[in-house]
């Protein structure tokens, strides 16, 4: 597999006239969906993203990826520090030998982990999110399909398909809980459907790089689409208060208040608690497809899917155990 992808990258770089490769492409670990490679050539250093072949088989995948780069470029034009793909031969999406790639200029920076989050990080990300939500994306809003769907997962289908004993038992045990959340979430999402913005929709820790001056750069715009602002606020505040490893209520409250102070819309916070489940269940279902080999390219991806299914189910339970204890009316009035 490594030799095959390296040959593809050599040929792609040659086709795009980006110089001669100096060193072997280096796999950059960390992505949960696509695979990234650092490529050093005589014309510069590039990040080459090989888009997941199974995802790219979907009906609207090409359109959604091209649109995501439009959104990233509009954000950049509106002073959001972010990294759109390079436009080469009049397109950001590079199709080559049945594969799809984005090519980026390499930026020096790193994603932080939950233990490294400071109040300064929280304030900077909350400010970025508020600014992003206040950008006028009307020229592309009607093109967005990601975020419009309101689907419920057929948990019985995956229980019947999955072979991993631990996952099957966990799904059986939590099926009624997940089904109930799904139905509540459907109603909440419908209630919020008249207040939507265009946004990144995946501003968790791996998708923001920090340089030596602690300046954030938003990357990985493939999930861009429409979303209720409070839904994304809640999800992002959760991530940046350590939600996936621990929960720091001070950071959580700071995120929401900083967002509000920078012009963010918080009127739908209470309803967003349950509509937020659709984001989590969508990612859970995708990883169940990996585990069941319905959308899976190799064993590495299957193992990643298994890890994510277990993590996401446990995160959903933790999220709702914690979030129902927060009095949002009090959070919203703190300064």
Count structural domains: 2
Please name the fourth-level CATH homologous superfamily of the largest domain: Aminoglycoside phosphotransferase (APH), C-terminal lobe
> Total helix count?
12
Largest sheet: 5 strands, antiparallel
CATH class of the largest domain: Alpha Beta
Counting helices, strands and paired strands, the structural category is alpha+beta
Segments where pLDDT lies below 50 for 5+ residues? none
Please state the CA-atom Rg, rounded to the nearest Å.
20 Å
Helix content: 40-55%
Number of DSSP-assigned strands: 9
> In percent terms, what proportion of residues is strand?
5-15%
How do the strands of the widest beta sheet line up side by side?
1-2-3-5-4
Architecture (CATH level 2) name of the largest domain: Alpha-Beta Complex
Gross geometry: globular
CATH topology of the largest domain: Aminoglycoside 3'-phosphotransferase, Chain: A, domain 2
Calculate the mean pLDDT score and round it.
92
Distance between the termini: 53 Å
Order of helices and strands: HEEEHEEHHHHEEEEHHHHHH
Brief summary of the model shown:
With 335 residues, the chain is α+β, with helices and mostly antiparallel strands. It has helices spanning 2-15, 61-77, 119-133, 138-141, 155-161, 165-191, 229-239, 249-261, 269-275, 277-291, 299-323, 328-333; strands spanning 26-28, 35-41, 44-50, 94-96, 99-105, 197-199, 208-210, 216-218, 225-227.
């Amino acid at each position: 597999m490594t030799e095959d992808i390296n040959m593809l990258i050599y040929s792609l770089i040659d086709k795009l006239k980006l110089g001669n490769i100096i060193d072997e492409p280096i796999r950059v670990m960390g992505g949960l969906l696509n695979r990234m490679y650092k490529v050093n050539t005589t014309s510069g250093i590039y990040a080459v993203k090989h888009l997941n072949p199974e995802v790219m088989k979907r009906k609207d995948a090409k359109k959604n990826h091209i649109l995501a780069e439009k959104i990233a470029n509009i954000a950049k034009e509106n002073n959001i520090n972010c990294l759109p793909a390079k436009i080469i031969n009049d397109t950001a999406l590079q199709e080559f030998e049945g594969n799809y790639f984005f090519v980026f200029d390499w930026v020096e920076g790193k994603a932080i982990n939950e233990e490294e989050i400071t109040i300064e990080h929280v304030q900077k990300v909350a400010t970025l999110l508020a600014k992003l939500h206040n950008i006028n994306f009307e020229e592309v809003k009607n093109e967005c399909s990601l975020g419009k769907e309101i689907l419920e997962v057929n948990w019985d289908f995956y229980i019947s398909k999955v072979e991993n004993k631990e996952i099957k038992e966990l799904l059986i045990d939590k099926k009624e809980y997940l089904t109930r959340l799904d139905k509540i979430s459907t109603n909440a999402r419908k209630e919020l459907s008249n207040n939507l913005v265009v946004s990144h929709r995946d501003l968790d820790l791996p998708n923001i790089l920090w340089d030596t001056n602690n300046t954030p750069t938003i990357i990985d715009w493939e999930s861009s689409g429409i979303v209720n602002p409070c839904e994304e606020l809640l999800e992002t505040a959760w991530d940046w208060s350590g939600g996936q490893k621990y929960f720091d209520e001070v950071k959580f409250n700071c995120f929401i208040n900083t967002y509000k102070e920078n012009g963010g819309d918080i009127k739908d916070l209470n309803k967003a608690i349950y509509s937020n489940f659709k984001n989590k269940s969508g990612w859970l279902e995708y990883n169940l497809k990996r585990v069941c080999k319905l959308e899976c390219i190799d064993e590495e991806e299957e193992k990643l899917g298994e890890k994510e299914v277990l993590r996401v189910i446990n995160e959903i339970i933790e999220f709702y155990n914690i979030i129902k204890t927060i009095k949002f009316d009090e959070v919203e009035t703190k300064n």
